[in-house]
């Protein structure tokens, strides 16, 4: 791709970008939220038509008019926001958009199921049933289906836009095995991720985007110092990623009564009785794999799931079980994991998405004070450096990481007393992460109590005061974050030797 430009109303998303990908290489695309990564690969996938520039594919200038046109040439994409049809089966999704006949026979029914099963086996996930509805699958399984769809064509290039964001460490390992398998047969992979350690593991070369321009092209992925990469992405050096933790003595000050108390909370088949006391100013991290019950615990505390045992108390007063209203009224907020499905109003403005849970604050006698709503929302989004800094931008036009920040801004604005954060930095770039961590710590210093779930162990260890390690629905370890290291937590998460 050379000199690619692409503008949206009011934004120049790509400003003359070059990208060169060789057969059999893993080419990583790096850049801050909103740098233009997804836009670039959507041009390559035929989703967006570029305003200028040229694409040369296997030596030949091409114009990719549609995703199907790109697919037919052997360019497949696994999107950041997966584009599967929930109401169709796995096999139907995999063969969606194929020619009605492949190799002379109609790919329907049984043939599609058999072919899909073979692809799923090749991807290391034989357990996914080809006739299961995609809507019933987990995020990780959906991604595998998306990958099976890519492989159902004769691909020469696969683009993966933050594929690891929804995956556990062992699933990431499986993904990397798949990538290795593909590249060893000459298939090229374009890989987008905010996790630099992944780039080190599988990348061959790196292109860095900043504000719609390529600021570095074809750097060696293994040997370019992290400092340099971060500086190219952000235009500055990010020194302190995690804010300093307050004195343990202050946090553990048993003098302050807990704001949140969880007593023997359990859901049959999901997680065993769970106890927790959370004090104002404290950040407690829940570490564990996807499926260990982390999100379920948060959602049950929030009242979105009804517990089969135990209770949740705020300021010592029990909440009505299974009632989100009761939890919210008592000052509990949840920033959920699957933002798109659970949290964002895609057609609405940034302002409305941020203010939606606090509208009563801006309403007087039935009138909404739009100016106050906008001003308050803007303050919250600026605290997170949300881009573009435009309160009227539609949420769907924001980059993935910036959509994420909008959800967090919503809870900052609500001013809750207990904040439950599920994967708060998924898809957020390194620079913004540091800002986000600082905001979370500052809120805690102002008296907020935070319960944090993250699959990124360094994040839990860096941000939390105390850590609870969950495995298969059980707390297998509790310790101050300062007493743990990443290795130890991963051991506990995977093997789970119980607390002595
Ligand atoms: N459909 C659209 N309409 C208007 N603006 C858009 C649209 N899609 C993207 N943009 C804008 O283009 C810019 C680049 O966005 P893009 O999604 O490519 O970023 P990204 O590098 O993928 O970021 P992230 O890491 O957050 O996913 C952003 O300013 C974004 O708001
Ligand atoms: Mg993106």
TrEMBL record:
Signal peptide: none annotated. GO terms for molecular function: ATP binding. Residues 1-236, 254-497 form the ABC transporter domain. InterPro entries: AAA+_ATPase, ABC_carbohydrate_import_ATPase, ABC_transporter-like_ATP-bd, ABC_transporter-like_CS, P-loop_NTPase. CDD domains: ABC_Carb_Monos_I, ABC_Carb_Monos_II. It comes from the Bacteria. The keyword Transport applies. Keywords: ATP-binding, Nucleotide-binding, Repeat, Transport. PANTHER family: CARBOHYDRATE TRANSPORT ATP-BINDING PROTEIN MG119-RELATED, GALACTOFURANOSE TRANSPORTER ATP-BINDING PROTEIN YTFR. This is Sugar ABC transporter ATP-binding protein. It comes from Streptomyces noboritoensis.
């Amino acid at each position: 791709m050379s000199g690619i430009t692409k503008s949206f109303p009011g934004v120049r998303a790509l400003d003359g970008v070059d990208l060169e990908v060789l057969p059999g290489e893993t080419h990583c695309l790096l850049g801050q939220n909103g740098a233009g990564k997804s836009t670039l690969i959507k041009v390559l996938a035929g989703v967006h038509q570029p305003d200028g520039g040229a694409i040369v594919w296997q030596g030949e200038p091409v114009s990719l008019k549609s995703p199907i046109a790109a697919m037919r040439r052997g360019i497949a994409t696994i999107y950041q926001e997966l584009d599967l049809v929930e109401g169709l089966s796995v096999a139907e999704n995999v063969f969606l958009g194929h020619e009605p006949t492949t190799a002379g026979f109609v790919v329907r029914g049984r043939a599609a199921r058999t072919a899909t099963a073979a692809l799923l086996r090749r991807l290391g996930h034989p357990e996914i049933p080809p006739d299961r509805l995609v809507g019933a699958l987990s995020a990780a399984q959906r991604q595998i289906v998306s990958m099976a769809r890519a492989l159902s064509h004769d691909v020469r290039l696969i683009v993966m836009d933050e594929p690891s964001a929804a995956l556990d460490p062992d699933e990431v390992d499986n993904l990397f095995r798949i990538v290795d398998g593909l590249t060893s047969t000459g298939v090229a992979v374009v890989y987008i991720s905010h996790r630099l350690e992944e780039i080190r593991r599988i990348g061959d070369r790196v292109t860095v985007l900043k504000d719609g321009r390529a600021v570095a092209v074809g750097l060696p992925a293994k040997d370019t110092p992290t400092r340099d990469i971060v500086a190219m992405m952000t235009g500055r050096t990010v020194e302190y990623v995690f804010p300093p933790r307050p004195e343990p003595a202050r946090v553990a000050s048993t003098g302050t009564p807990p704001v949140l108390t969880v007593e023997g909370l359990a859901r049959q088949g999901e997680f065993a009785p769970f106890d927790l006391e959370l004090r104002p100013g404290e950040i407690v991290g829940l570490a564990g794999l996807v499926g260990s019950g982390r999100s379920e615990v948060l959602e049950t505390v929030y009242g979105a799931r009804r517990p089969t045992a135990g209770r949740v108390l705020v300021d010592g007063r029990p909440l009505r079980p299974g009632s989100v209203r009761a939890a919210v009224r008592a000052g509990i907020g949840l920033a959920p994991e699957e933002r798109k499905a659970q949290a964002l109003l895609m057609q609405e403005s940034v302002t409305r998405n941020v203010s939606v849970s606090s509208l009563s604050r801006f309403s007087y006698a039935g009138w909404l004070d739009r100016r106050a709503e906008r001003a308050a929302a803007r303050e919250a989004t600026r605290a997170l450096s949300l881009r573009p800094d435009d309160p009227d931008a539609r949420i769907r036009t924001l980059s993935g990481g910036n959509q994420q920040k909008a959800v967090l801004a919503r809870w900052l604005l609500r001013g809750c007393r207990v904040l439950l954060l599920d994967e708060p930095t998924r898809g957020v770039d390194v620079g913004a992460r540091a800002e986000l961590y600082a905001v979370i710590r500052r809120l805690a210093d102002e008296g907020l109590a935070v319960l944090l779930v993250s699959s990124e162990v360094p994040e839990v260890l860096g941000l939390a005061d105390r850590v609870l390690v969950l495995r298969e629905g059980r707390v297998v370890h509790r310790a101050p974050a300062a007493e743990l290291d990443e290795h130890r937590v991963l051991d506990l998460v995977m093997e789970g030797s119980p607390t002595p």
